[in-house]
Amino acid sequence: MPLLDIQNLSVAFQTRSGVFSAVTDIHLTLDKGEVLGVVGESGSGKSVTMLAMMGLLPWNAQVTADRFSFDDQDMLSMPEKARRRLTGNDIAMIFQEPTTSLNPSFTIGFQIIEALKIHEGGSRRQRRERAIELLDKVGIPAPAKRLGDYPHQLSGGMNQRVMIAMAIACNPRLLIADEPTTALDVTIQAQILDLLLELQQERGMAMILITHDMGVVAEAAERVAVMYAGQLVETGTAGDVFHHPRHPYTGALLNALPERHPGQGRLPTIPGVVPGIEDRPQGCLFNPRCPHVQEDCRQTRPALESDHSTGSSHDVFKKVRCYHPLVAQEQGEVAP
Questions:
Q1: In the beta sheet, which residues pair with residue 225?
Q2: Same domain, residue pair 112 and 79
Q3: Are 131 and 114 in contact (CB under 8 A)?
Q4: Domains identified in the chain, total number
Q5: What pLDDT is attached to residue 331?
């Protein structure tokens, strides 16, 4: 029984222009202690999928799924109070922008202690000691003194550490990290990623790492899910996806990595942009940008189907949404 089981998840928003399907046909499973990387360009639906899981979408969102369970508990049918308790204790999320995620009007100590008061209880002294322990755990120096600081008094990296401290406060079984290193400089990014992986291994948490950085995924994830325009286009183990990409979009993302083209002046890019509400193409959503497009790609939308091309023992995880997946020679061109 997987810890997280999502089958055929769709999220639509009612807008002035009509109903916009932001996410469709998402199938994800996650075992206890596993790290899943979710990658794709901005606008691919990564964050919307996870916000749907947390129950944090706005009022005009419509969420449907054939199955949406955590530890065999149906998250769509459970009462709202039970859902909030579950997402506060067993599922936690680190958001993209630490500076805007923290309330600027309250000290970081107040915000951590408030979360502990709601979910763990205990005396005021116990909550304060626990908050100091958490700040120390995430590497913030002089944690007792920092309790009285406001978010604007801390750097972006320190604020992200505060967000991590709040997320792990209740010992969650699943941690969702939404672009946890995007707004940070390179050296701080490495520190935050190392901290997350250390906490994940130490506590045995499952973790979903949302990012557009394929290098981060290669370093941290055991399995990878590639999203484009609200759909999963490829899933598999990290090794299979990186060494045997089957979807042209995955291949193009890998081909754009700087380390694959040392010494070159310009890196390969993917022409065009992710389609929005007004310009969704017929057929495969990637077909206007795909160098391998054929006529059937423009007619009907492909399904996400199992792929057994690698001959790996992990083929059960390998799926691709493409009529004409990359073959070995093309893989070598786009992902040497």
A1: 38, 235
A2: yes
A3: no
A4: 2
A5: 52
pTM for the model stands at 0.90
Q: Residue 58 sits in which domain range?
A: 4-221
Do 234 and 166 fall within a single domain?
no
- Please report the DSSP string for 244-302 in residue order: S--SHHHHHHHHT-GGGSTT-SS-----S----SS-PPSSSTTGGG-TT--HHHHHSPP
Residue 230 banded pLDDT, cuts 50, 70, 90: very high
Last residue of a domain, one of 168, 193, 221: 221
Statement: residue 209 has pLDDT above 90: yes
Residue 188 and residue 287 in one domain: no
CA distances from 214 to 5, 38, 41, 151, 230 (A): 24, 9, 11, 30, 18
**DSSP states along 26-57:** EEEEE-TT-EEEEE--TTSSHHHHHHHHHT--
What is the domain-level CATH number for residue 169?
3.40.50.300
pLDDT-derived band of residue 334, with 50, 70 and 90 as boundaries? very low
Give Cβ neighbours of residue 298 (< 8 Å, ≥ 6 apart): 281, 282, 283, 284, 287
